[in-house]
Amino acid sequence: MPENPSGIYTITLEVDRINSSVVRDSIDPSIVIDGQVYPMERSRLGGSLWEFEYRLPQGRRDASYYFQVEYGVQPRRGSVREREAASPLQSLRIVSRYAMSLESHRAPVGTKIGVVGRGFRSSDEIVVGGLAAETVYQGPNSLSFYVPMLEPGQNYPVMLVDGNRSMRAGVLRVDEAQMRVTPSSLSFATGESRNLIFTLDQEAPPGGLRIPVTTDIPDSIIMPEVMVPGGSRTINIRVTGDRRGSGSLFVEAPGFEEIEIPVQIND
Questions:
Q1: Strands 259-266 and 186-189, sheet pairing
Q2: Based on the domain organization, do 150 and 210 belong to the same domain?
Q3: Sign of torsion, CA 92 98 103 106?
Q4: Please, which residues bridge with residue 12 across strands?
Q5: DSSP label at 104?
Q6: Residue 246 pLDDT level (bands cut at 50, 70, 90)
Q7: 17/24 Cα distance (integer angstroms)
Q8: CATH assignment at residue 250
Q9: pLDDT tens digits for range 221-233
Q10: 198 with 261: CB under 8 angstroms?
């Protein structure tokens, strides 16, 4: 359980009737902890839930306990008979460092996602689906990351990693991100250049976002690597015609819809 300033922790039990012979109003659960028996109260959530508010003794970080439930059974014929059931031994451990959940459970590539938790360190790194994400440490209780370039339409585990230690922070579904490239086609003569503008729907992460671009006429085109600077949504790339050719540019960035740009270079 996550540590809290009060030192009081809610232990919850669910009691189900296994058959109709159990008298509903006879169910009386209790918890045995630190050698003491304490009655449990019905949960405000209702249903078959019961709770016990446990104040952990000062200096303690863990506890062992088990549940016992007294109840009555009434056969079709005969009087009510008292019965008792007990759970296996349970354990409770208080942690001061944890990743409780993600602020969002689905997002496209490049989106900034916050992690809810406590005890974060500047050396922490978020790993999504086995791929390291750009991680931003903002304080012991504030950590965020940018969704890395993963194939969309899938769920990926999100892990908080510090050296050889890791803990699960949640599950993220990666949706397809949107990108626009203008113009939608290029036509020019050898030796001439044209601008190609790449536009994202969200800002690129601090380290920038590399967009892979390939072509089927590599001898005809000269163009630099496409890298959208961190914090920017657009990048303007200069494409130069080196020799006559006809083909396409293919924008195939993981997490984005593939874009094909027809290219015609004349003498």
A1: parallel
A2: no
A3: negative
A4: 51
A5: -
A6: very high
A7: 8
A8: 2.60.40.3450
A9: 999 999 999 889 9
A10: no
Evaluate the omega torsion of the peptide bond into residue 183 and state whether it is cis, within 30 degrees of 0.
yes
pLDDT at 218: 94
79 and 125, same domain (yes or no):
no
- Using the predicted structure, report yes or no on whether residue 16 has a pLDDT greater than 90: no
Count of structural domains within the chain = 3
At residue 45, the pLDDT reads 83
- Residues whose CB falls within 8 Å of the CB of residue 87, separated by 6 or more in sequence, listed in order: 13, 66, 67, 68
110 contacts 200 by C-beta, under 8 angstroms: yes
**Whether 84 and 71 share a structural domain:** yes
Round to whole Å and give the CA distance between 192 and 54. 76
Structural domain containing residue 80: 8-93
The per-residue pLDDT for range 129-176, each reduced to its tens digit, is 999 999 999 988 889 999 998 999 999 999 999 888 888 999 999 998
How does residue 100 score in pLDDT terms, banded at 50, 70 and 90?
Answer: confident
Angle at 137 between CA 133 and CA 142, to 5 degrees: 110
Residue 7, classed as helix, strand or coil, is coil
Q: pTM of the prediction?
A: 0.64
Q: Which helix (H) or strand (E) holds 192?
A: none
